[in-house]
Design a protein that fits this description.
By secondary structure, this protein is an alpha+beta fold. It has 2 helices and 3 strands; from the N terminus they run αβββα. A hairpin with a 2-residue loop joins strand 1 and strand 2. The N and C termini lie close together (8 Å).
């Protein structure tokens, strides 16, 4: 799904934000900058993947706990 994602560039493909105590996970399939609320010239748009209700987690935490694997 995230072709080309590595430990050094995973933040270009996956981003996490916290809103009202919930963690929202977004993906960018081509890694052209995965940051919510921004636009870029990428082939694929940033896509909301999942909301983790009542959880405040960072991307690092999700990766360390193997909740996101690539």
């Amino acid at each position: 799904l995230l072709d080309g994602a590595t430990s050094t560039n995973i933040e270009q493909y996956v981003s996490v934000s916290t809103v009202n105590g919930d963690t929202q996970v977004f993906i960018d399939r081509d890694g052209q900058g995965a940051t919510p609320n921004t636009s870029s010239q990428s082939q694929f748009e940033l896509t909301h993947l999942i909301t983790l209700q009542d959880r405040e987690l960072s991307l690092d935490q999700l990766l360390q706990n193997n909740q996101i694997i690539y």
